[in-house]
Structures are given as structure tokens and as C-alpha cells.
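STRUCTURE:
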């Protein structure tokens, strides 16, 4: 099992089917399992039962071991607080992996999405990934800002207006 990733202010806890089951039973169970407080605005955007079912299914697929795909973000100061999620959107393919992130509104604008994403990117480099991609929309200026701070470069947009950003190793 992959252990938690540590950054200066966060513990990135890898999801397991059991942990996802706890959250599906109620976010309070997830917080208890993580020994963290649950903010009143949990869950973050794009983190619902369908997403959790998707991650649980993905974790059962071949190749997911060691690439835990989805991590919960827990602050390190006392008391620990569950503040968001960060994820690989699948195992690396041909040296490429995609990341995503979301922080609850009450904890935004503190650099946590940037810090968590940097931890995930560094872990990807250690596993031999050569290119990290991310997608967002231009209207999501804070998300675009996260990618800019991490050094991602714009790589075009699709027909729905979703922007792609890329970060090459080295």
C-alpha cells in the first residue's frame, strides 16, 4: 500500500476501497477514519457519490496499486482538518498522467491546491512520469492560477472551452 504523501502543511492520504466506503456511509465516518475535523462545507466541488463510486472502481483495476489515484487532503496543524482532494485521473500511460484538485471553499486561497498538486507531481516524477497534464476552464481563474504557479503551460482548448495545461519533467 502506498503511504501518505507529506507536504509542509498537508498530509495527502491515499484512498482505499474501505476509506471510500466510509465516506459513502457519511462524511463524518471519513473524518473519523482520518482522525480529522470535517468542515461545514465538505465536500469540495466535483466530489460526490458518483465520483466516489468511480474511484472505488478504479482502485480495483489492474495497475492502480501504487497509484492510489485519489487522495484526501488533511491539514497538519492541530487539529487536523479535512480540506479537499487531489488525484491522478488514472494510472500513467506512456509516461503521461493527469491530475485534478479541489479544496472546500472555506480553505481556498491559501495555496493548498498548489501545495497538494506539487506533492502529487513530485510523486509522479519519482515513478518515471515525463508529462503531467491538467484541465480547467478559463472562468476558473484560481484553478488557472494554481497551474501557472506550478509551471504548467497552456496547450490548447477543446470544443467545450476546457483548457489543457502541460508540465514536462525537468
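SEQUENCE:
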Amino acid at each position: 500500500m502506498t503511504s501518505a504523501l507529506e507536504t509542509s502543511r498537508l498530509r495527502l492520504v491515499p484512498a482505499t476501497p474501505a476509506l471510500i466506503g466510509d465516506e459513502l456511509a457519511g462524511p463524518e465516518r471519513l473524518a473519523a477514519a482520518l482522525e480529522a475535523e470535517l468542515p461545514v462545507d465538505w465536500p469540495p466541488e466535483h466530489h460526490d457519490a458518483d465520483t466516489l463510486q468511480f474511484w472505488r472502481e478504479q482502485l480495483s483495476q489492474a495497475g492502480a496499486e501504487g497509484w492510489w489515484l485519489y487522495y484526501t487532503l488533511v491539514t497538519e496543524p492541530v487539529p487536523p482538518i479535512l480540506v479537499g482532494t487531489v488525484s491522478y485521473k488514472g494510472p500513467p500511460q506512456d509516461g503521461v498522467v493527469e491530475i485534478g484538485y479541489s479544496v472546500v471553499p472555506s480553505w481556498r486561497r491559501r495555496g493548498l491546491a498548489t501545495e497538494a498538486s506539487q506533492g502529487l507531481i513530485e510523486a509522479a516524477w519519482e515513478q518515471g512520469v515525463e508529462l503531467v497534464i491538467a484541465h480547467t476552464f478559463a472562468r476558473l481563474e484560481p484553478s488557472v492560477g494554481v497551474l501557472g504557479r506550478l509551471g504548467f503551460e497552456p496547450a490548447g482548448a477543446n470544443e467545450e472551452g476546457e483548457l489543457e495545461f502541460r508540465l514536462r519533467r525537468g
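REMARK: The beta strands are 5-6, 10-14, 70-75, 82-88, 96-103, 131-137, 153-157, 162-168.
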